[in-house]
Amino acid sequence: MSDLIEIRWHGRGGQGAKTASLLLADAAFNTGKYIQGFPEYGPERMGAPITAYNRISDSPITVHSNIYEPNYVVVVDDTLLDAVDVTAGLKPDGAIIINSTKDGDELRSHLKGYTGKVYRIDARKVSMETLGKYFPNTPMLAAIVKVSGIMSEEAFLEDMIGSFKHKFAKKPEVIDGNMKALEMALKEVTEV
Amino acid sequence: MGIRERLSGNEAAAIAMKQINPDVVAAFPITPSTEIPQYFSTFVSNGQVDTEFVAVESEHSAMSACIGAESAGARAMTATSANGLSLMWEMIYIASSLRLPIVMSLVNRAVSGPLNIHNDHSDAMGVRDAGWIMLFSENNQEAYDNLLMAHRIAEHKDVMLPLMVCQDGFITSHSIENIELLEDEKVKAFVGTYHPEHYLLNDKEPIAVGPLDLQAYLFEHKFQQGLAMKNAKKVIADVSKEFEALTGRKYEFFEKYKMDDAEQVIVCMNSTAGTAKAAVDELRAQGIKAGLLKIRMFRPFPAEEVATALKNAKSIAVLDKADSLNGAGGALFEDTISGMYVSNIHVPTVNYIYGIGGRDTTVNDIKKVYWDLQEISNTGNIGNPYRYLGLRG
After folding, report:
1. A60 vs B contacts (CB less than 8 Å)
2. pLDDT tens digits for B340-372?
3. Which residue range(s) make up the domain with B319?
4. Does the ipTM exceed 0.85?
5. Could you count the other beta carbons within 10 Å of the beta carbon of residue B5?
């Protein structure tokens, strides 16, 4: 399974990291992949650190364990950088994507000497400009798609329209904002 | 050709129940199986099933309601986990002794205490002698498929026993994965309609259900229960073959993974088998003759068939996800080695207790077991047969 991509999400309860991992699994599934999307359940509560995972592959996935050596790590909240060992096991040829406004040097100083690529996105700015509220998971979802190249941006956006129509069937007014958040995030995420 | 989908294990179980469309579902929510009755109650309120959904006040009542419904002649289902199953305990035995083919989705979780919501098999092992057929499922697909086969097995006239389909709490119940679903009409045709031979609501044949059964008869009735469990083997094999013809998905008493020339063999159940397959693949690439025997049918236990399948191994490890706390190994280990002994097959075999309370089990953990087995094969020395995997020192 050399084509296997493993992703670990770090967020805080209520920020939607679990939902983002499930949406990513959905989007990858819709491009024909084999997928897993699962959270690590603990004593969930608003604000507590949570972890979620994705496996994405062209062939069936049989492993059922947490992910310890991910290709990519997504950090939905940069206050976690000091609380959680976010780069633990992260492959040097992979990347970490952090929701932050801090500069590259400062971010790297929290990453315990991680030598791989570091990407930053200001998900708060994207979310506030497109949704008017702070929902970091939508921009982070777009960021991981862009950085990992799991699927093309076009296929991703096309698929997400369908997902949002389903997810927000009872409040269609937020679909446009979420799509704009994805589009803006695809442009905003940058290597630092 | 089936429907390509992605569902969690709980969603898969709920969809299977929707397609089966039983007469009665009675359930009380408990983590990690809560979503099954939750989703199912949505199907009920949306009119997608005709089921009478009984939102009971406890699991004891859930099983009691299923017993009442099945006795009346209806098809009844439930779902639970861990302490929910514990609370059903009294009624679990009554369901099987009354020969009521109730079908349960058991999402395996550690039985308290101390309180733990995560996966192990202590709930299932607590009812292994209760007279229920027990099928274990590696992933969402198998949980779904086993449920679709469940009524055909349980309701067969040579069987008439309740059946539970197990899957690992959170690990598969809450993981979204690919799955292939059958079309509704195909499920309906496969599962068929339940025509009980004897039932309470038959006014042409008044019967008593569950009367006093003392020295003169209980022994014979227990013998008949045991006989039904033996009969279940052939029925499970037949129904599984029919299911394979319909779906292309092959199910046997157990799955043999790279067993043909295997020297080091692991025996285990549920999601760990998938992780073990990845370990086997990695070790095979290094020239190690690793193999896996994944038990699907735990009750009835295919003792003779398991023994035969293991006879050419050089060393065997049986992995138990519940500690029987008896100083003599876990339940699957005991069943496996007693089956081998009775068949006069003697291969060095050790037991590992693992994954208790949701302790994660990785590919590397499983590889360590195979390396231990190589050591046993090379030296012929079993050492301590009662081992632990992933226990902090």
Report:
1. 178
2. 999 999 999 999 999 999 999 999 999 999 999
3. 254-389
4. yes
5. 16
